Each structure stands twice: as C-alpha cells, then as structure tokens.
Amino acid sequence: MAKQRSTNVIVTLREVRGDPVRLVKKFIKKTKKEKIIEKFKSRMFYEKKSSKKRRERMRKRENIKKAEALRRKKLDS
C-alpha cells in the first residue's frame, strides 16, 4: 500500500495583511488546489476498481483530446 503524503495547509494573517475574510478565502483556495475536499468526498463511499479505472481512462481521453485540439490550433495559426 502506498504511503500517503500529508498535506498541511497553513495561512497566516501576515500573508493576507490581517484581513480575516481574505484569510478564509485563501484557505479555501489552497484546499481546492491540494484537492483535499475532493479526496475526502471521493473516499466517503466505496467505488469499485472497475469504476475507478473507467473514470481514469475517460479522464485521460479527455486530456488527450484537449491536447490534440490545442496542438492543432497552434499548428494552424
């Protein structure tokens, strides 16, 4: 089993110049970037291995299509 990397999201008041509203916004942005909430939600319920594999294959196909379209756009211009 792979060892999980611990994620620590720290936001200081100095970073946001003492504004508590900006502090919360920055914290939320950092957690989204680290995908902490997505990981938690995805692990709330069991997902079959075949479903995971299928989802990953679909994600890879989408990424390939996007990269191909971007490459074509660059070549055409």
Task: Describe this structure as you would to a colleague.
The mean pLDDT is 90. By secondary structure, this protein is mainly α. It has helices spanning 20-34, 36-42, 49-76. The protein has two domains: 1-45, no CATH class; 46-77.
Main attributes of the structure:
77 residues; mainly alpha; 2 domains; 3 helices
How would you concisely characterize the structure shown here?
By secondary structure, the protein is mainly alpha-helical. It has helices spanning 20-34, 36-42, 49-76. It has two domains: 1-45, no CATH class; 46-77.
Percentage of residues in helical conformation: 55-70%
Mean pLDDT: 90
Q: Could you say which structural class the secondary elements and strand pairing correspond to?
A: mainly alpha
The string of secondary-structure elements, in order, is HHH
- What composes the largest sheet? none
Distance between the terminal alpha carbons, to the nearest Å?
47 Å
Number of strands: 0
Number of domains: 2
Radius of gyration: 19 Å
Estimate what percentage of residues fall within beta strands. Answer: under 5%
The rough form would be described as flat
Q: Report the uncertain regions.
A: none
SS summary, helix count: 3
